[in-house]
Specification:
The complex is a heterodimer of chains A (504) and B (312).
Chain A: H1 3-13, H2 16-34, H3 40-51, H4 56-81, H5 90-101, H6 105-131, H7 143-160, H8 165-179, E1 182-183, E2 190-191, H9 205-227, H10 246-268, H11 274-288, H12 300-316, H13 318-324, H14 330-341, H15 349-353, H16 355-383, H17 391-408, H18 412-431, H19 436-459, H20 471-493
Antiparallel strand pairs in A: 1-2
Helix pairs in contact in A: 1-16, 2-3, 2-4, 2-16, 3-4, 4-5, 4-6, 4-12, 4-14, 4-16, 5-6, 5-12, 6-10, 6-12, 6-16, 7-11, 7-19, 7-20, 8-19, 9-17, 9-18, 9-19, 10-11, 10-12, 11-12, 17-18
Chain B: H1 2-24, E1 33-37, H2 44-60, E2 64-68, H3 75-82, E3 90-94, H4 97-100, H5 102-105, E4 115-123, E5 127-131, H6 139-148, E6 151-155, H7 158-171, E7 175-179, H8 183-191, E8 197-200, E9 213-218, E10 245-251, H9 256-271, H10 273-281, E11 287-290, H11 292-311
Parallel strand pairs in B: 1-2, 1-3, 6-7, 6-8
Antiparallel strand pairs in B: 3-10, 4-10, 4-11, 5-8, 5-9
The chains are: A mainly alpha (504), B alpha/beta (312).
């Protein structure tokens, strides 16, 4: 490593302009992340025009800070309102919201923040020192491996929903079905679009995510408020015990480290994305726990697992970007554009031609994490005040933001109709205990799974034996089958199989 | 290259001729404009469009806001544009395949005649690429290798697939064709040598400078000035090409003064250093200026030629 370049990089990272740029990015991202219905894509579309007036280093650090901020911020609405701003924070709500209702909202928020920041910093360090030279490893994961991993993720996440495997399969099946809407990616012919141009690229993900996650939750809460008069709002008491303590931190530390590992692995493979990362991490934490039955009822490890992985994915997605020039996710693809507008081509050549810039960006990323910690720590005191607002005020405001967030995506009235349809679907699924998480993850994964499966089948020319030369794919296929068998056994053992359901 | 000089010369001449009426139409625009991009942020159209918007802003004296309306390879954006008031305040920047190709394979709610093609400022780059680590580097070597071995190809559109299928049939190749879902999905398949060769609509600009990817042939009608040694399919004796122009498009029937102002802005952009630097230096698209008359003709000619290829 060239130390004069590193020194110069650190110097640039510590100028006032960069503090303002990065801090502004983190703050904007955090605020947008906190508001249910507004997500990372909204934050980025607001931010892109701003980056024209910044130096390349500040522009890029600003965008990275923004991504980090949304990932950390979306945990707040997940914990306090059970209305995650992003699909990737849905796993956080599983334990965060129960914990907040048990009178520990601040502890939950602090666990989320610390897990986010640690996942973030550790993954950034892995990115800097370890991963870029090994970025080519990602090329070992071809279509066969990706298809196998995605199938595994699908079954594994379906298992998290607990309850009845058959209901889980129904929810997952519906997600897969709706995930196939749109133009066929080989022939270009429309599938199930019913003549709507808006559906050519599939059901808009934002509408599906906001509808099933945030908007439907507002319906559920309105109903509770009306019929049960249930005091479902989280109460913030001035409880001196409501804070993260050293024993809690020690207890969740291994989970954070595992979550970071999972998040980094998922992020380094182009296309998997943060929701797969956070749910995989959550599931692994549950499997590894001594008392897995506590998950879903306010287990601190659940929050830590989800948030650390969610945030680790963001720096890790830059591994294939800087190492190979391949964007790992949408935010990374946007960075290519941000670089290009400033006349820089992202990829392996960046390290050779512009090392100062690359080191400055790394320094900026670490700075962004630190700013996020400070901002989040004091910010959560402010955001926690949300809990003082009565639910009959909060609910309409959240509904407004959900609708506004959808309008910002540029789908017009059509988008609102789709959003409402998915909110209704999410409401029914919650009411009749079908896992909306399984549904959503299946929906998100399907296009990738379909593409990779199709590539595998065509490239192998239908010959199964090719898998014998792909050990990684083989391992994941075996794991998928084992997980499926285990899930079916669990449903049978817990004793309430659907009457008359066929054994297969 | 010769053609570019010629175009530049004509452009300069045209600039002189239109200078007078422009002064009279100077009151337009009186409010900010919207540039619609039919793709997500970050792609080559988006990058070029954003720089173009900045440069057009200088000329028009009003802000030009960029709005991304991705979906169906710009089909969504064109559908919206067809239903927009023809006042010139909303225009689209992008390639023309959603007009010359998409309507052939799927039903859309717009037609070529719904729009006016004011000016093209960059020429689309369609290439056939392979990994530098493959035993074959040129298109002829690919064909030769394919006569002995089964081969794989990664497509991105039904059009490039149709062309490669036709060539494979002519040459007697045993070819399996996989979908990729775009340039971002193509790169790992080629670099990881999961496929032997692939279509690239411009993504190769990111990988050829490192020497990881090589361009075997161009599907465009002409050679690229950035890869002067790489022949086109037509030069290699296959009578197929995919032509595409990055064009400024408005709904049919904009007022004459508006048309002139927008064409003037496009011409100004085609000579602006900022636009040339990014478009040629970063995305490897040659900058040109092709006026409305020629573009109207081009779009219709390409559509007819594409219909012929797809009919097979």
């Amino acid at each position: 490593m060239d130390f004069s370049a590193v020194g110069a990089a650190a110097a640039e990272a510590l100028t006032l302009a960069s503090f303002i740029g990065i801090g502004g990015g983190v703050l904007l991202g955090y605020v947008v992340g906190v508001i249910p219905g507004l997500s990372r894509s909204v934050a980025i579309s607001i931010a892109i025009p701003m980056t024209f007036y910044m130096s390349p280093y500040i522009a890029i650090s600003f965008l990275i800070g923004l991504s980090k901020g949304t990932a950390a911020g979306s945990a707040v609405s997940a914990i306090l309102l059970n209305a995650p701003g992003e699909a990737s924070s849905a796993a956080t709500a599983l334990d965060g919201y129960p914990m907040a209702k048990q009178g520990k909202p601040k502890t939950a928020l602090q666990i989320g923040l610390i897990a986010s920041v640690m996942g973030d910093i550790l993954a950034t360090i892995i990115l800097i020192f370890v991963a870029i030279p090994f970025a080519r490893v990602a090329l070992l994961f071809g279509p066969y491996e990706m298809a196998a991993i995605l199938a595994f993720a699908l079954v594994f996440i379906a298992g998290l929903s607990g309850g009845n495997i058959f209901k889980g399969l129904a929810a997952g099946g519906l997600g897969i079905f709706l995930g196939t809407v749109g133009l066929d990616n080989q022939t270009g012919l429309p599938r199930l679009t019913f003549g709507y141009t808006e559906l050519m690229d599939g059901m808009p993900l934002i509408a599906v995510a906001i509808g099933t996650l945030a908007l439907s939750e507002m319906f559920v809460q309105s109903e509770k408020l009306r019929y049960e008069r249930a005091d479902m709002a989280v109460q913030m008491k001035h409880d001196p015990n409501d804070r993260i303590t050293w024993p809690i931190f020690r207890r969740i530390l291994p989970t954070i480290l595992r979550g970071t590992g999972v998040g980094t692995f998922v992020g380094a493979l182009p296309g998997l994305g943060p929701s797969v990362g956070s749910f995989m991490s959550y599931g692994m934490a549950q499997k590894a726990a001594a008392e897995p039955e506590k998950f879903g009822k306010g287990e601190p490890k659940g929050i830590a697992a989800s948030e650390s992985a969610d945030n680790a994915v963001i720096p890790a997605a830059l591994i294939p970007l800087f190492g190979l020039g391949i964007p790992g996710n949408v935010s990374a693809a946007l960075l290519i554009g941000a670089f290009a507008i400033h006349g820089i081509t992202v990829g392996p050549l960046l390290l050779r031609d512009n090392p100062e810039l690359l080191y400055s960006i790394f320094a900026g990323m670490i700075l962004a994490s630190i700013i996020m910690l400070v901002l989040g720590w004091y910010g959560l005191m402010v955001f926690a005040q949300i809990t003082r607002v009565p639910p009959h005020v909060v609910i309409p405001i959240v509904i407004f933001f959900c609708l506004a967030g959808m309008m910002l995506q540029g789908y017009g009235t059509f988008g609102l109709v789709i959003l409402m349809a998915f909110a209704a679907l999410g409401y029914l699924m919650k009411k009749y205990d079908y896992s909306f998480v399984t549904f959503l993850v299946a929906f998100i994964i399907t296009p990738m799974l379909e593409l990779n499966l199709r590539q595998s089948i065509i490239l192998s020319r239908g010959n199964w034996e090719i898998l014998l030369n792909r050990p990684i794919a083989l391992v994941f296929i075996v794991c998928t089958l084992l997980a499926l068998v285990a899930l079916i056994l669990r449903t049978i053992k817990t004793g309430k199989p659907v009457a008359g359901a066929p054994a297969d | 290259m010769k053609r570019r000089h010629l175009i530049a010369a004509t452009a300069a001449l045209a600039a002189g001729l239109v200078a007078a009426p422009v002064a009279m139409a100077d009151d337009w625009p009186t409010r900010p404009l919207t540039m619609v991009i039919g793709f997500a942020p970050g792609g080559s159209t988006d990058i070029q469009g954003r720089v173009l918007a900045n440069v057009m802003e200088e000329y028009l004296g009003q802000p030009v806001n960029v709005v991304n309306q991705p979906g169906g390879g710009s089909a969504v954006a064109f559908t919206r544009l067809a239903n927009t008031a023809a006042d010139g305040y909303t225009f689209l920047f992008g390639g023309t395949t959603a007009l010359t190709f998409t309507p052939i394979i799927t039903e859309v709610e717009y037609e070529i005649d719904n729009f006016e093609y004011l000016a093209a400022v960059a020429v689309g780059q369609n290439a056939i690429v392979t990994s530098a680590e493959q035993p074959f580097q040129t298109f002829d070597e690919i064909i030769e290798h394919g006569r002995e071995n089964p081969m794989t190809y990664a497509q991105q559109t039904a059009l490039d697939e149709a062309i490669i299928r036709a060539i494979a049939a002519e040459e007697g190749l045993d070819l399996a064709i996989v979908p990729t879902g775009g340039g971002g999905g193509m790169a790992p398949l080629v670099l990881g040598r999961e496929v032997d060769f692939a279509y690239s609509g411009g993504t190769h600009a990111q990988y050829t400078p490192t020497g990881e990817m090589v361009v075997a042939a161009f599907m465009s009608a002409e050679r690229s000035p950035f890869y002067e040694d790489v022949p086109t399919l037509i030069e290699l004796g296959y009578n197929y090409s995919i032509e595409d122009y990055r064009t400024i498009i408005v709904p049919q029937g904009v007022p004459d003064n508006v048309r002139e102002r927008l064409i003037g802005a496009a011409e100004h952009a085609s000579q602006a250093q900022a636009f040339i630097d990014i478009t040629e230096g970063n995305t490897f698209f040659p900058v040109v200026f092709i006026g409305q008359e020629e573009m109207e003709e081009n779009v219709r000619r390409i559509r007819a030629a594409t219909e012929e290829v797809m009919a097979d």
